[in-house]
Every structure is written in C-alpha cells, then in structure tokens.
Amino acid sequence: MAGMPHSLKRAVSTPLLYFFILGDVLGAGVYVLIGSVAQASGGAVWLPLAVALGMATLTAASYAELATKYPRAGGSAHYATRALGPAAGSLVGFCMLAAGVVSVGALARAFAGDYLQALVSAPTAVVIVVFLAALAALNIRGIKESLRANVAASLVELSGLVLIIGLGAWILLRGDADPGRLTEIGTAEHGPVAAVLAGTVLAFYSFVGFETSVNLAEEVRDPRRSYPIALFGALLTAGVVYVLVGVVASAAVPTDELARSSGPLLEVVRRAGGVPDRLFSVIALVAVANGALLTGIMASRLAYGMARDGLLPAVLTRLLPGRRTPWVAVVVTSGASLALALTGEVAVLAETLVLLLLVVFAAVNCSVLLERRHPVDTDHFRVPTLVPWLALASCLYLFTRIDAEIWERGLILVGLGAVLALVNGLRTRRAHPESRITQAVKTMRP
Predict the structure, then answer these.
(1) In Å, what is the CA distance from 119 to each residue of 125, 341, 346?
(2) Is the residue at 228 inside a domain?
(3) Which of 6, 73, 210, 319 has minimal Cβ neighbours within 10 Å of its Cβ?
(4) Based on the structure, what is the number of domains in the chain?
C-alpha cells in the first residue's frame, strides 16, 4: 500500500543494545542455577560457569560476524537461508520461534507462580492474561520504549546479583564462610573432569539469550560498530557476575545445602542477615518479566523477518504506521504464548528449549563458514576461522549431554519444523520458481 512503511526504524543505540543482551542473558534462571551446578560439579561452582562463558562466547563470535555482515531482522533464520537454502532457514526459524514462544509462555506462568503469590494472591489465569497483554502493548508501542524499560529492569536484576556478591563478601570477611570449598571439584557420582563438564552443560543454559539480539540488527543505528561491542561487553559482564556469584555462594553456603535449595541465592541472604527475604521475590519477578519482554521482542522480530523472506504468511510483515513496529507479529506470537501458558503445555515444551537452540547454534556456526565464500563490500566483524569450528564442536558435545527423554520430545518439534520447511520449499517452487529467495540462493552458489 502506498505510504505504508516497509522497513524497521533504526532507533537502537549501543547502550540500549548492550542492556538488551545483558538483560536477556542474566534472566531469571540464575536465581536457581547455582544450586543445580553445585549438585553436578561440587563446591567449585565458579569453574563450570567460567568454562560455559568460554563456550558461549565461541558461538557468539559467529553471530557477531553474521549480524554485522547481514544486519537484517530474521537473524539465525536469515543466515541459514543464505548459506543453506530456504528449507534450512525455515527449519532454523521454526526452532527459534518455538523456543521463543515457549519461553515467553513459561515465564508468564512463572510470573504468576510462587514469587508473586508470596506478595499478593491472584488467580493464575488472570495474571497470565494481564501480564502478556501488557508486554505485547509495550512491544507494539515501540522498540525504544521496550528497551528503555529493559534498561531499568536489567539494572534491578544486576543490582540483585551485586547484592548477593556484597553479602557473600561480608560473610567471608566476618569469618563465617569456608573458602576451601572453592577448590572442591567432583561428586560421589563423577570425578573432577566429568563433574566440571556436567556442571558446564547446566551453566551453559544460563548464557542462552545473546542469540536473540541479532533480530534487532535492522533497528540498530550502526550495527557494524555497535553489535560486537554490545554483544561481547554484555557477555563479559554477565560472565564476571556469574563467576563472582558462584564464588560467594559456594564459600558462604555448604555445597549439599546449596544443592538442595530451590532458592540457593536466598540461602546467602539468610546467612548474611539484614535483608528481607521478600526483597528477592520482587527481584525475581522483575527478572522474569524482563526475560519475557526481551524474548517476546525477539519472537516478533523473527516472525516478521521470516515472513518477509517468504517463510511465513505475509500478514506478519504488517507494520504499525508511525511507530513502524510489527504489530501483527507481536499479536500472533503473544497469542501463541498465551495459549501455551494457559493450557499448561509449557512444562513439557520448556525442557526442549536447549535442544532447539543447539540446532540453531549448529546451523549458525555452519553458516558463518559457508558464507566466507561470499564477501560483501562493506566492512564487518570477522572472527578467526578456528572459532566457528570450535563453536560447532561445542554444540555437538552438548547434544551428547541431553537426556533421551528430552530428545524424544524435541524431535517432535524439530519434525514439525522440517514439515514446514518442506511445505515452504514446495510452495516456493510451484508458485514462484524464480522467486527472490531461490534466485538469491542460486547466485550465491559457486
């Protein structure tokens, strides 16, 4: 239609992008992660966290190269389409969408759960509906407004973790901690190496979230300069905070007690004294809401980008006049998350999130290597060739650490994505044999 906007507004600065990535990586998981890592690896909780940071950074480097080389909404799906063809792009995009929609639904249900009930009693269904409607409205209003809200929420999340570090340091200084636990590696079930690797798999989950930021590349003012700075800066910040939290939590709380607790950081607060337990309920709610907002932004931008590439219905490309936000994509993805949250299917699907994202990460690491055959005229971030290979190897290793039960569930979703890819491929060939995407793939082949 004449006069309708056809591109997203470039309104995201480097600081806003940095806080987007930081808020998405920190997320709500860290408040329960430390206990699980301690149970898997022993007292040296900080070590698996440090190893996981290194593994996440490898794949993040591949994203940095592709996001600065091709700064477009659609992110991982767009990269896979260029390097591997529309079918692969459709599969990768479906995995990302499924992970994002399920994540928002799970976070909505978490928001209505025990943390909120500790502060106020409210029907779960009502809370979920209001929560997701508010997030969708903020997302539709504009990316700048959404990311400004994220800055405030990220600062609350970060301040809560800094508080834990400070309280843990106070426990150490007054002599009520045991620094010797920081060198205890291994459990009754696993030796030192196996224990660290088991803990690393769990810790790796806490760094997931950085991949969502590539879907904002088209809305970043100067993506080729801003994106690597924001990405690596946010990952480093999160990594340092995680390692320090791991150090103080392990030293302050006995390992078996830390492993048994469903709120391990709350154990640090209780041992330090002076801080109300209810404070962490508020912080956790902010973390959950922020994670849902950022993931919702990712899902809507990904749906918009895939639709623009012809992989999803074209109606998802409609933008709100004036604000130029993908309002149809926001409504559709929010509606899917609402359905999952209200029906309770999120608990089953949430266990497959990591598997879905590993499919995406493996495809992205392959894509960055294949796209080296097609240089572009503009300057962009370039990672040493060894890094994507190491990142791919780390993904393959993590695949081997996933339980068979999760594979059974995850393969169902991956199968659905494969069917979508097949349908898209057939539809493209029959209706548009020389479509823009097909032609682009042909021209990229050597």
Answers:
(1) 17, 21, 24
(2) yes
(3) 6
(4) 1
Q: Which of 386, 334, 296 shows the shortest CA–CA distance to 130? A: 334
Which CATH number belongs to the domain containing residue 253 in this structure? 1.20.1740.10
- Average pLDDT value over all residues in the chain: 81
Does the pLDDT of residue 132 top 90, yes or no? yes
pTM exceeds 0.90: no
User: Which pLDDT score is estimated for 74?
Assistant: 61
Which range marks the domain in which residue 412 is found?
A: 14-372+384-428
Amino acid at 29: G
Structure tokens at 178: 């045991």
- pLDDT score of 438: 46
Distance CA 33, CA 433 (A): 49
For the chain, the three-class secondary structure string (H helix, E strand, C coil) is: CCCCCCCCCCCECHHHHHHHHHHHHHCCCHHHHHHHHHHHHCCCCHHHHHHHHHHHHHHHHHHHHHHHHCCCCCHHHHHHHHHHCHHHHHHHHHHHHHHHHHHHHHHHHHHCCHHHHCCCCCCHHHHHHHHHHHHHHHHHHCHHHHHHHHHHHHHHHHHHHHHHHHHHHHHHHCCCCCHHHHHCCCCCCCCHHHHHHHHHHHHHHHHCCHHHHHHHHHHECCHHHHHHHHHHHHHHHHHHHHHHHHHHHHHHCCHHHHHHCCCHHHHHHHHHCCCCCHHHHHHHHHHHHHHHHHHHHHHHHHHHHHHHCCCCCHHHHCCCCCCCCCHHHHHHHHHHHHHHHHHCCHHHHHCCHHHHHHHHHHHHHHHHHHHHHCCCCCCCCCCCCHHHHHHHHHHHHHHHCCCHHHHHHHHHHHHHHHHHHHHHHHHHHHHCCCCHHHHHHHHHCC
**Residue length, the chain?**
446
pLDDT for position 434:
52
Contacting residues for 411 by C-beta, under 8 A, at least 6 apart:
none
In a domain, 306, yes or no: yes
pLDDT of residue 345 exceeding 90, the answer is no
Q: What is the pLDDT of residue 332?
A: 93
Mean pLDDT calculated for residue range 18-43: 79
List C-alpha distances in Å: 328 to 140, 142, 310. Answer: 9, 13, 16
What span, in angstroms and rounded, lies between the C-alpha atoms of 201 and 335?
32
